[in-house]
């Protein structure tokens, strides 16, 4: 969906939607470990991780956080005339529950604030909750800051 900057501003304070479920399997966890060089056993050693209270490997918290932009694409409207967008950062990131290998996650997105005060750009803050399929407690909650340019 393509909307104007003013229509985007009108969505401030509204829930934008929930993404589809996304599988976080051991192959993806291992790939993330390779890229980040984070080989802590709880992520990559299935046998050793089974002996922990978690009962198996879990995704890196940073892997779960890195899925936010991908999951957001499914629910974020496209503002007409935008030439590029930037991940401006995160506020109040909290990792609440581990994502076990083989689980699916999805993102729930609410637009907290939209700033149109500077010509040629939109700054926004999105409240994000990453849910874990079949679990009551989410994997993480965060305020995601974005910046788009015209």
Could you explain the architecture of this structure?
- With 150 residues, the chain is an alpha+beta fold.
- The chain has six helices and eight strands; from the N terminus they run E-H-E-E-H-H-H-H-H-E-E-E-E-E.
- The strands form two sheets. Strands 2, 3, 5, 6, 7 and 8 form a six-stranded antiparallel beta sheet that branches. Strands 1-4 form a two-stranded parallel sheet.
- The model has no long low-confidence stretch (mean pLDDT 96).
- It has helices at 5-10, 26-36, 41-44, 46-50, 61-66, 68-72, and strands at 2-3, 15-18, 22-24, 78-79, 84-95, 103-115, 121-132, 140-149.
- 27% of the residues are buried.
Taken from the alpha-carbon principal axes, the silhouette is: elongated
Question: The biggest beta sheet, please?
Answer: 6 strands, antiparallel
What is the strand content?
Answer: 35-45%
H/E element sequence: EHEEHHHHHEEEEE
Number of helices: 6
Task: Tell me roughly what share of residues is in helical segments.
Answer: 10-25%
Termini, distance in Å?
Answer: 17 Å
The structural class is alpha+beta
Average the pLDDT over all residues and give the rounded result: 96
What Rg, in angstroms, do the CA atoms define? 17 Å
Number of strands: 8
Ranges with pLDDT <50 over ≥5 residues? Answer: none
Salient structural properties:
single chain, 150 residues, alpha+beta, 8 strands, 6-stranded antiparallel sheet
